[in-house]
Each structure stands twice: as structure tokens, then as C-alpha cells.
Amino acid sequence: MSQRSIYKISGPEREHFLQGLVSNDVSRLKDGPVYAALLSPQGKYLADFLLVPWNDAILLDIDTSIAPATMRRLAMYKLRAKAEIEETDLEVYRGTSTPAPEGAVMDPRHPALGWRLYGEAGGDDGSDFDAIRVAHCIPETGIELTPDTFILEAGFERLHGVDFRKGCYVGQEVTARMKHKTELRKGLVCVEVTGAAAPGTEIRAGEKPAGTLFTQAGGKGIAYLRFDRAGEAMQAGDAVVRYS
Description:
It contains four helices and 15 strands. It is about 15% helix and about 35% strand. The protein is globular, with a radius of gyration of 19 Å. A hairpin with a 2-residue loop joins strand 11 (about 200-205) and strand 12. The protein starts with a strand and ends with a strand.
């Protein structure tokens, strides 16, 4: 699994502070973990993370590669809010085995992703998470999710990562406009792959660029496609890509 950093957000205004920044409704933490994104004012992806209720605080579970920049941005927005952000020594252990360990919480993105347990030990139970992600078209930080990503094209609505009724947050206007006023012409989809290609390989439909191939497992892959050019016999390097 990718390396994760776990931060603790505490203070009486911790939920109010996050509510005006992230794509999901933080009040849902009363029911369990929440998946959310932090966006630029232009509505593009900056970071995604899990928010987890933790005693009198909120844990923020984030890919380590984007953690420092994300924490700097959160600190910039914090201003006078009565909330504190601190890094913890906690690690995350994840798995799909049943029953889940005592104290584990379910991943809110998709049931197939199983559970996450926060404590002194990190890692996973040996589940093939790449295969799970590909089967259910679940994007990963730094692979399918990049600074060029719009979260609706990445499936955040399907993955319970965005709320359209919560009110304003950074990037909300662009996201709402994509939801209500346009039809998505590009997005992440699951494709069939014969052969293999490095993640990030361009997909071509004849002479025209049609998208990008990312994570692959078991003859399938996650691809970002232009739907008007997607077809049944595209090429990504030496691999044949089919979408129907």
C-alpha cells in the first residue's frame, strides 16, 4: 500500500473549519468515516483523504506524498478557527478479511475496500488492493488522481466523496456546475486490457489521442478516456485497450 500519514484535528471548531473547505459533508462523521477532497478555487483536485471520528478529534488519513503540502494549505485556511492540526504516530492497517478486527472502521468509498484499523502497526492483510481498485474503478492518489483531475470525472460521486447539498466549500461552484449544467465528456472507466503498459501510457484510437491508461490487474485497467473517441480496439503502447 502507499505510505500514509495520519494527522489529528482537534478543537471545538474542528468540524466547522473543515466543512468550509472539503468536498463532503463533515457532519456525516457522526455515522463513521468520510471520504473527501480538497480542491483549488478552479475546482481541480489538490488532495483526497479519509476523515475518521477519533474520541474528541478527527483523524485525517492521507497519502504521505501529498501530506506536507496539504497541511500547509489547511494551516493557511485555519486563521482564527479554534482547531489544531498535529501529526500523529498512528499507522493504518487495512484488509478485507472477515470479521474485521475490533476497533476497525469500514472504508466509506466502497464495501470491497474493507476495513481500516488505526494504531501502532501499519500494512495490510495481503488483499490485492490494486485488483480491487481496478474492478471497481477506484482511483489512487498520485496515479489516477493528479492536479489535472476534476473529482466528478474521477467518480467521487459514486465513491461517496462529494455532497451537493452541504453548501459552499473551496471549488464548489465549478463542481456543482459540472454536476448540474454539463454532461461529462471525459472520465475514469474500467477497460479491458490485452498485454501491459506502464501507468500513464497514452491511449490512442487510430491516429487520435483518446486518453490515458493507469493501474492494471487481471486483464482490466483504469483508464481516463474521452468518451467521444473511446472504442473497442484502442492502443496503449503495446497493449490493446477495449471499452464498451
